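New here. Your pick:
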Amino acid sequence: MTTAPTPVPASASAARSGGGGAPGSVTPESPATTAAAKAPRPGKRGGPRGRAWLAALPLLLFFAIGFGLPAIAIAIGAFTTSTDAPDGGGTFTTDNLTGSLQGAYFTALWGSVKLSLLTALIAAVVGLPLAQAVATSRLRMFREAVMSASGVLANFGGVPLAFMFVATLGNSGEVTKQFGLTKHGWNLYTFSGLSVVYLYFLVPLMVITITPALEGLRTQWREAAANNGATGVQYWRHVALPVLAPSLLGGFVLLFGASFAAYATAEAMVGSSVPLISMQIGDALSGNVLVGQGNLALALGLDMIVVACLVMAVYLPLQRRSAKWLA
């Protein structure tokens, strides 16, 4: 009786390499391999990354309607004559832009730049230690209280803020009368007084901006500096501040933009006693210009847009650079 040969199973290595199979045979694929082969690769059309821009489409549409179209209208109006001009309006001209950079208008533009630079610098210097106290505090209640208050105060402005300071630090304010501040030369309705008012919402804004960067400082860096004999001052000078420099500059630029664009608070408190570009735009829009210069307000608005674009051109690269260190 003849016995059939017993089949010998192929080794695992041969099965993986395919050398143990007969010529022309196909090795069945595992379910995991099949699923991996069918899964869409990142970057292909239809993949998650290819559809990610759809989530930002409403924001882009809102930006185009709320900012793009008005910006285009301002740019067109800044380089054309107004409807009250002798030629009927619509003619190309550079007189609006030239006039916006001369006389009282240039003084107002320079006044806004000075006010923004001063208040942003003071707010950055004052807000950094406060943010450091928040970032290093072990009291959760203190952290939440400061961050919540900063979020509210950073968005508190306009007529309510002006009324609050007029009632407390105005010429007849309670604090002014209690301490006799007018005898020492204090006047709320000046450049210095307006700077104090702006700090009320700029310092909390700096705390919100710089606190995440301070929390990103790693404990190992301080420990390594201490192990090498560095003092606290040396650590901040050679390690912490160089790492935080892009975030600090970015926060300063953000504060500058917030101060430069503020209008309602200054309008309600000082009016035209302090020359600011936002006040000049308000006067021009209300018709307080010469005949034929109705589009001068658009030229002033274009000047502000250019300054804002320059500010953002500085702010965005600084944010990307700081993210590399603090990520």
Residues 9 and 85 are 98 Å apart (CA to CA). The longest helix spans residues 103-136. The two ends are 78 Å apart (CA to CA).
